Amino acid sequence: MNLAVDIGNSYTHLAVFSGQKEVENFNISTNNFDSVSICKKYLKKYSGKIKSAGISSVVPSKNEFWNSFVAIYLKTKPLFISNRINLPIKLKIEKTASLGTDRICNSVFGFEYFKKNENVIVIDFGTANTYDVVLKNADFIGGIIAPGIETSSKALNLNTGKLPLLKKSDFKFEKSLIGKNTKDAIRSGLMNYALYATEGIISSIKKELKKEFKVIITGGNAKKIQNKLSFKTIYIENTVLKGINIILNYNKLK
To answer: Which CATH code fits 2-80?
Structure first.
């Protein structure tokens, strides 16, 4: 069995895999000081069964903690996802060391999901909204990064004198595009900005590359956006975790 750990800015996501099948997943706050006991609680039933672990991290300050946890509790050395390890895709971009490991994992998952037969764009609606492009010849050619909905909400609140901070439960589409009060105006701006930016980005990628693409969407706000998009998408949860598992299994064969 494999353990996949996705260390994100807000949350750390973990999943246990048996082969390609995800058998359990759970989340903890990235800054939770009780991470060890929480992980032990969930992983106790798999004691002695987890033989490999992979870690994708966009928070370097947490890497040593997770490296030690895996080494001590699982008695194995984790594979940290990076541009330097064996990957089923080819990173055809400049300065590959700066590429976020979450984007590597999303791209690997998208490429493998379509059995290497389709050009694919993976959209992740999280702290940042990322759009990553992988061609069916395995070339990862880059992508686009924009502020996520919650990040944009916080920026409006922090950088203005009167605009309120919206809660996660506020992130939804209303019937009218035009907000009748300040809160509704912000809500409309956040949600529709993400929607129409996505519409324009996907259309422009297809036009620029003169290719057709399958589109996978994931992330906390993905389903809300998906229901409004004019083009077909496939919603899949935990693509980073699934990508980590694919990369782990890929490296076992090397």
So the answer is: 3.30.420.40
